[in-house]
Recover the amino acids of this structure.
């Protein structure tokens, strides 16, 4: 999977701070932002937006991602773009299992069938019905900072499905570096307090996990 931040609101903490300062008639935007976020008044974070390009996300994970409705998505079409020359997304649990060879053979047969169907004149939009959820896609996604905080709180949790958690981890690493004033304490509940899950995983995450390494 490849995750790239392609554009964002310049000085995101600055514009959100200005919004917070207007609300309280403050002369100190930075302090106003800390107070607003600390008080749960996160509407001021909606003024900063971030646009990501994601490549190699499976259709299975895409179905989870688009549940975050306060976001904008544009996804590579399977109606007009023929699927070919791709690496399917295979979970590590399957790769390490006794089923890997069988699963790989099945997926290869299915994708070969898809190609033959399209070659025979069946529209790609119909042939795609036989393709697996392992097919990767490319998308552009835009979220504001408020929705990103919500997204990170859910999807960086160890209880989240592994692929969307990997996506969220990559995005959070980028956002923390870019706007620490907004995302410095972002992440699942265990990062800043008590785990909200009924059945905690027992392995709390740490802010250092999202520090960019070189």
């Amino acid at each position: 999977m490849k995750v790239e931040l392609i554009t964002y609101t310049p000085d995101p903490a600055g514009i959100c701070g200005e919004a917070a300062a207007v609300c309280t008639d403050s002369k100190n935007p930075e302090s106003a932002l800390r107070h607003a976020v600390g008080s749960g008044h996160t509407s001021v974070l909606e003024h900063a937006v971030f646009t990501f390009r994601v490549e190699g996300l499976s259709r299975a994970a895409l179905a989870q991602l688009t549940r975050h409705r306060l976001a904008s998505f544009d996804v590579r079409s399977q109606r007009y773009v023929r699927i070919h020359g791709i690496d399917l997304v295979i979970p590590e649990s399957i790769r390490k299992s006794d089923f890997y060879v069988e699963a790989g053979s099945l997926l290869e047969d299915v994708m070969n069938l898809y190609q033959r169907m399209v070659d025979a004149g069946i529209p790609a939009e119909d042939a795609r019905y036989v393709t697996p959820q392992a097919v990767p896609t490319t998308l552009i996604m835009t979220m504001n900072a408020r929705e990103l905080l919500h997204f990170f709180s859910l999807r960086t949790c160890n209880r989240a499905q592994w692929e969307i958690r990997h996506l969220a981890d990559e995005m959070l690493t980028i956002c923390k570096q870019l706007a620490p004033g907004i995302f410095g304490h972002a992440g699942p509940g265990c990062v800043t307090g008590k785990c909200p899950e009924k059945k905690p995983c027992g392995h709390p995450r740490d802010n250092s996990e999202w520090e960019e390494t070189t």
Q: What stands out?
A: The mean pLDDT is 94. The chain has two domains: 2-74+136-210, 89-130. The radius of gyration is 21 Å. The CA atoms of residues 82 and 124 lie 6 Å apart.
